[in-house]
Specification:
Elements: H1 2-8, E1 29-31, H2 34-38, H3 40-56, E2 61-76, E3 78-93, H4 102-106, E4 115-125, E5 134-136, H5 138-141, E6 145-149, H6 172-182, H7 189-212, E7 218-219, H8 229-236, E8 263-264, H9 283-300, H10 308-314, H11 326-336, E9 339-340, E10 361-363, E11 367-370, H12 375-385, E12 388-392, E13 400-402, E14 404-405, E15 419-429, E16 432-438, E17 450-454, E18 467-470
Parallel strand pairs: 14-17
Antiparallel strand pairs: 1-2, 2-3, 3-4, 4-5, 4-6, 7-13, 8-15, 9-10, 11-18, 12-15, 15-16, 16-17
Keywords: Disulfide bond, Glycoprotein, Hydrolase, Protease, Signal, Thiol protease, Zymogen
Family: Belongs to the peptidase C1 family.
Protein name: Cathepsin F
Length: about 475
């Protein structure tokens, strides 16, 4: 169990678009779609079943898969594929070494009366498990039945075995495009090769997120695709947030009433441009200033770009680039008497000596409140009061590209918050409700710096630490 849990945490957040678990009964089986059939993991499952059949069969000849029938998938601890494999016996002997797939070896040599077998098979795909990502249930292969002879006109569906190997994920051409898109330059050839190896591994993780996500999000070669999980977490995230450190005062639950279908504070002028925290774990400061910028605009009718560096340097409770909490930052802002403008105290992205100037305070706050964890109440509060500072589990964010992200809880623990962001609005895409979240990793990340997350089930803990300053 420990190994499984550790393995699951390796799934991080492609260029492959898939609705693998979308609109599927949780835990139930669903048919393989055309998109699934083109996807690498299902093709690899077919390859693994063929390899297993040839390994455990007593026949002296290799067998190749003609086709699969009645294919279904099911989310378990990974993805279980079940189908009926239809094999044909080839004239290629196992004792003779061949290169390539059995169908490529022997498709021109098949006898028109070759034996055909039907086998009920089950294979579980666990992308985090190395080196055995595919586990084939041998019991089905041991119960194969010869059903008939091959028909002379019967086509060979060998195309399902081509291009399905993991070598196609994270290839060097994709890495070259990633470097070009994000201006990546490495100090040496050896460092570039090391980053390419990390990139390949990350693309497999991103592909796993793509397969398992319940929304329509795309995961792939984001700006962080050449970083290890440890590098990403240490540079861009905070230590796990203490969920007990919420403001003592609870915000009044607003009247829910009839909320608009969509709402966006960016359209009202209450949100500054997307910023970039760099390699400093100061997300908490950006979440805090974003909230106060909105509060000041709504109450004072003026949008002011505020200084995160002041919080990094002068907040005596939080830990600058090593992390912090908006709930604590509000109190420190009250102690200091307010926040300076970004232009007067510019962001450096590292811990500096405090240079706070009381004479240049641009905004103040009066208090802070904790906001309801109920997402309908959150939406009502946002519409009536402004953007909300939140914490979130950033597991799925390293490789996020676009679309509505909706990871399963087992891959994005809602109690493990490690990143501060800002909810600025919400919307609907078809029947899918989502939050609009402003991040602090620059506009080259995600959807021009924004993250769309499923709204309604506490995805990645986004409703666990909702707070706001109050300006009167």
């Amino acid at each position: 169990m420990t190994r499984l849990l550790l393995g699951l945490t390796l799934l991080l957040s492609v260029a492959i678009s898939a609705h693998c678990l979308h609109n599927v009964v949780t835990g139930g089986k669903s048919p393989i779609t055309a998109q699934d059939a083109e996807g690498g993991s299902f093709q690899n499952a077919i390859t693994e079943v063929t390899r297993a059949y040839n390994t455990y069969s007593n026949s002296m000849f290799h067998h190749a898969m003609l086709r699969y029938e009645d294919a279904k998938k099911q989310v378990v601890a990974g993805i279980r594929y079940t189908f009926v494999a239809v094999f044909v016996e080839t004239p290629c002997r196992k004792a003779v070494r061949h290169y390539g797939s059995p169908l490529r070896w022997c498709k021109e040599k098949l006898s028109p009366d070759a034996k055909v077998y039907r086998c009920p098979v089950s294979v579980v795909y666990r992308p985090w498990s190395s080196p055995r990502q595919y586990e084939v249930d041998r019991s089905g292969l041991e119960s194969c039945q010869q059903t008939r002879r091959l028909k002379r006109s019967e086509p060979l569906q060998h195309q399902v075995l081509l291009g399905g190997d993991s070598h196609d994920i994270g290839h060097y051409g994709q890495f070259a495009e990633f470097k070009r898109a994000h201006g990546k330059v490495y100090a040496s050839r050896a460092e570039e090769q090391r980053r390419f190896a990390i990139f390949r591994d990350n693309m497999k993780k991103a592909y796993a997120y793509q397969m398992l996500d319940r929304g329509d999000a795309r995961y792939g070669a984001s700006v962080f695709a050449d970083l290890t999980q440890e590098e990403f977490r240490s540079r861009y995230l905070s230590p796990r947030w203490d969920l007990s450190r919420r403001p003592a005062e609870e915000a009044a639950v607003p009247t829910l009433g009839d909320l608009p279908t969509s709402f966006d504070w960016r359209e009202k002028g209450a949100v500054t441009e997307v910023k970039n925290q760099g390699t400093c774990g100061s997300c908490w400061a950006f979440s805090t200033t974003g909230n106060i910028e909105g509060q000041w605009f709504i109450n004072k009718k003026k949008l002011v770009d505020l200084s995160e560096q002041q919080l990094v340097d002068c907040d005596k409770v939080d830990e600058g680039c090593n992390g912090g909490l908006p709930s604590q930052a509000y109190k420190e802002i009250e102690r200091m008497g307010g926040l300076m403008k970004e232009s007067d105290y510019p962001y450096r992205g590292s811990d500096q000596k405090c240079q706070f100037n009381q004479g240049k305070v641009a905004v103040y706050i009066n208090s802070s409140v904790a906001i309801s964890k109920d997402e309908k109440a959150m939406a009502a509060w946002l519409v009536q009061n402004g953007p909300i500072s939140i914490g979130i589990n950033a597991n799925a964010m390293q490789f996020y590209l676009s679309g509505i992200s909706h990871p399963w809880k087992i891959f994005c623990n809602p109690s493990h918050l490690d990143h501060g962001v800002l909810i600025v609005g919400y919307g609907m895409k078809g029947t899918e409700p989502y939050w609009i979240i402003k991040n602090s990793w620059g506009t080259s990340w995600g959807n021009k710096g924004y993250y769309l997350v499923y709204r309604g089930d506490g995805t990645c803990g986004l409703n666990q630490m909702c707070t706001s300053a109050q300006v009167k």
